[in-house]
Amino acid sequence: xxxxxxxxxxxxxxxxxxxxxxxxxxxxxxxxxxxxxxxxxxxxxxxxxxxxxxxxxxxxxxxxxxxxxxxxxxxxxxxxxxxxxxxxxxxxxxxxxxxxxxxxxxxxxxxxxxxxxxxxxxxxxxxxxxxxxxxxxxxxxxxxxxxxxxxxxxxxxxxxxxxxxxxxxxxxxxxxxxxxxxxxxxx
Length: 187
Description:
Strand content: 25-35%
Structural class: alpha+beta
Keywords: Plasmid
Radius of gyration: 17 Å
Shape: globular
Helix content: 25-40%
Mean pLDDT: 91
Number of strands: 7
């Protein structure tokens, strides 16, 4: 049985159109666990993923991330990712990884903003030890916070951390489907 991972991605309509036309994502150069294409994880309740993606878009729009886009309205994409073999998949939400991360953070004198860097370093270290390269990483990332003059949605109320799938550069071929779920919100 082939397993698939489902995710959502909130962005501007301009960028969503480009993604759908090219059938690929631009890799972010920074993030909770380093470079990759980030997707909010869901299993069967797509509305959960949509709310996280819309909250992300609101936060990015507030930070003027879409300032140069012709159409900065909210568009949510749905992706279907082929789950790679276990050797190329890391579930960093599992207790063993959280404990290893805890030890790494506990050993270092660090600032609050250093956790993503240490997480990425730990993942690189594990890849080296196992002589592998992770194509997809499941991770907990910060749920987008409330944007001024907006109401919290149910997904934001649920937890300060939400699961996501990060597809690394060498795993982009595993994204099998990209569809537009919602579009047009200017909020």
